[in-house]
Amino acid sequence: MTDPAGSAPNPQAPAPPPVAPPPAGGNWQSPPPAAGPGGFNPNIQQVAAEPGPAPGIVYADLVNRIIALVIDGFILFVIQFALGIVFAAIQLGIGFSLILTIVSGLIWAAISAVYYIYGWTKMRASFGQKFLKLETVSAADGSTLTQEQAIRRWAFLFGPFALGAIIPIIGALVSLVAIVYALYLLYTTSQSPKRQGFHDVQAGTVVVKHL
Fold first, then answer.
1. What pLDDT score was predicted for residue 12?
2. CA–CA gap between residue 176 and residue 144 (Å, rounded)
3. What are phi and psi of 210, to 5 degrees?
4. What would the 3-class secondary structure string for 67-87 be?
5. What sign results for the dihedral spanned by CA atoms 33, 198, 80, 118?
6. Which own/partner pairs from 149-153 qualify as long-range (CB within 8 Å, at least 24 positions apart)?
7. Which residue range forms the structural domain that includes residue 65?
8. Residue 46: inside a domain
9. Residue 147 pLDDT > 60, yes or no?
10. Which end of the chain is more exposed for a tag (fewer CB within 10 A), N or C?
């Protein structure tokens, strides 16, 4: 049919191409949030995690990792609280001693180091991680951490906190730095597709969860 002017009808506009469905397997992911200058993401949103390294295994999310740290922290608190009572009794007997305070800080750091390093190298996880089916393994091949890897990971994860306990004179300043450092670790973990924080990168490790 022609219009009143007698011109030929306009051809129908072609339909838009269909949107391709996500690939099979459920691994489709939205693009990560745009980063600002220097790669810094002003929204501090988590980058989408990569698919798990093996069937039935995924990279552990921040929530599970934080819960595991809380469980481990409670276990260590009970141990160190008992030792703290002993040191407090000694302090009451002899008065304040800077040397004794430093020694107690060293003991705190040693207990924390042994607790985590033993767990990562002998059980592939701390007790808190075991409870949530998490493992800390080598990022290269999923093998058990070597002692050197475990020491490096502990140092980069808890070093600032241990330093504040060992050197009480600058404890307040170190505690402030440690809080900022902890936020940095959370940020770097959330921005890694494999959920590797700065401490994981330095030690060549990754935390995974068994489904």
1. 55
2. 33
3. -90, 125
4. HHHHHHHHHHHHHHHHHHHHH
5. positive
6. 149/120, 149/203, 149/204, 149/205, 150/116, 150/117, 150/120, 150/121, 150/203, 151/113, 151/117, 152/202, 152/203, 153/116, 153/120, 153/199, 153/200, 153/202, 153/203, 153/205
7. 54-210
8. no
9. yes
10. N
- State the pTM of this model: 0.72
Question: How many domains is the chain partitioned into structurally?
Answer: 1
Instruction: Tell me, yes or no, whether 33 lies in a domain.
Output: no
Say which amino acid occupies 76: L
The tokens for 73 are 């922290």
151 in any annotated domain: yes
Q: Which two tokens stand for residue 46?
A: 């988590």
Per-residue pLDDT reduced to its tens digit, 2-34: 444 444 445 454 554 444 443 333 332 333 333
Give the separation between CA 68 and CA 89, rounded to whole angstroms: 32
8 Å CB contact between 196 and 125: no
In the chain, % helix, strand, coil (3-state, to 5) comes to: 55, 10, 35
